[in-house]
Structure formats: structure tokens, C-alpha cells
Amino acid sequence: MTLAIxxxxxxxxxxxxFFSVAEPFRNAASLSTVxxxxxxxxxxxxxxxxxxxxxxxxxxxxxxxxTSALTAGMFSFQFTTNVWVxxxxxxxxxxxxxxxxxxxxxxxxxxSFLVTLATFLMLQGLNLxxxxxxxxxxxxxxxxxxxxxxxxxxxFASEVAVGNVSVKVxxxxxxxxxxxxxxxxxxxxxxxxxxxxxxNADSARAVGVPVNRTKIGLFMGVGVMAWFLGMHNLFAFxxxxxxxxxxNELIYIAAAVVGGCLLTGGYGSAIGAALGAxxxxxxxxxxxxAGWDSDWLYSILGVMLLGxxxxxxxxxxxxxxxx
Length: 323
Hints:
This protein is mostly helical and about 325 residues long. It has one domain: ABC transporter involved in vitamin B12 uptake, BtuC. It has helices at about 5-20, 30-55, 60-80, 85-110, 110-135, 150-155, 170-185, 190-200, 200-205, 210-235, 250-260, 270-290, 295-320, and strands at about 160, 165-170. The chain has a two-stranded antiparallel sheet with strand order 1-2. It is globular, with a radius of gyration of 20 Å. The two termini are about 15 Å apart.
């Protein structure tokens, strides 16, 4: 049984459990809330899962989302530009952060843990220090009345009516990103490169795979998703707190692992990672709907993560023995 099937079974089990014990969980509006929570985790998990398949991970992904949102918001406000100018500037900054992460990693051969931990600390400090310097506070100024805000909000933070329920547009973007990532992994040469680099970088290099470019590209992909989620946060709330995003990177990695991605690289799928994000959201929201003590949330998630790692390793070892 493949990891994807096992993840789907886990996802179904979690759904049935909370559907049975939590009456609000059966409400369409509540399910819409679960899907929204899944999408805000899942959008980043798409890129994080590809990076993990490629053998690396990014501890700066959480604060990079906030960096992107702050860049767009403060640039637009301070220079009184159309907000779309700030959006494009934020995209350039996010791509630059991803490029620097990847470039430093391939040039120094340092573990991605150290490289991205350093980036995490730098971005966390810059987010707070620059926001205080520019705005005098710990949050960006409201941009709700600026040119382009409504059109940008329609793209990044609007709602779509599905029957009698409003569904956040991030849900549809999330599904689209998963579809594109799945197509890329399974149907393109780049997908083959990602699996090869994550499986054995030296062997991949020996057969002509551009290992360095692939790794840098994967880090820049994380930057793109950080930018997109940052834009959602900005246009959903029109202001951003500079301390947001800390520890979210662990949630993205956990969702990818629960979805079947191996920490050692070379195995996983975007669909599995999406199911991992859905599982996380169902557990976090389901505990609230069921009226359980939310203090147990992270304990439950920790058990799930450990169980997923053990299952993933067992499946990997079994597959290797059968070759």
C-alpha cells in the first residue's frame, strides 16, 4: 500500500471521527472553515513538500510569509503607490530570499537546517526592526483605502459562493497549486530532477541533472508560495503584525511529513502533502468543534507526526527490500 493511500485513509479516519463526535463539524459553513484553514497551510506545504522531496527543508518559510506581506504593505503605503506595485516588489523580495537560501546552500554545502535557520533569525529580526523604524509600531499601516486594493483583494482574499456557503478563494488557489505541482512531479523533466536530487544528489549530478539549479529553484518556489500567502494575509486583513509566522514553518514541514514526504528526500507527492494539510486543519478545528481541551492539540499532532514518520520509514524500507 503506497504512502498516498495510507495518508488518504488517515485523512478519512480523522474526518469520520470528528464528523461523528462534533455536531458543528457536520455543518457546511464549518467545513468551509476547515477548508480555509487547510488552504492557508496547504499553499505553503505544496512548495515545502517539493523542497523536501528534493532533499532539503526551509525553516524560514513561516517568517518569509510575513516578510512578503510587510514589504508589500509598507512599500505601497510609504511611497503612496498603487498596491499592485507593492505586490510586485514583495514578489521580487520573496524570490530573492529563496535564491539566497538556495545559493548559499549549494555554494557552502552547509545543511539546509543551518542556512535556513540563519535566514529565519535574520528575517524575524528585520520584520520587527524595519516595521518599528518605518511605522513607529509593530504592524504595517492599513492600506484598505489605497488604489488597487479591491482588485488585489479579489485575487488573493475574496470569497466565492458555493450554494449557500462562502468559500475562500485560497481554497481554489490551493487546489490549483496542488494540481500544477503534481503535474510537474509526474509529467515533466523537472519533476524527475527533483526526485533524483532528493534520492542521491551525487548520482543525479553524474547523469547530468543540474543539481544546483534544481535546489535553488525549489527554494525560490518556496519564496513564491510565501509571497502568495503573504498577499492573502495582507489583503484579508489590510494590515500585518511583524511578529506573525514564527513556528508556522514547523506546521508546513509536519503537514508534508504526515502527507508522506520523507525527511531524507526522494519520496513524496503534492497530493499527499495536501492531505497532510487537511488532516492538520481537521484536527485543529475539530478539537474546537468537539469541545475538547485545546491544550491537547499539539500533543495529538506530535503523536500523529511521530506515527507518520515511523510509517513512512517502514514503507520506504519495505519498498527497498522488494527491489
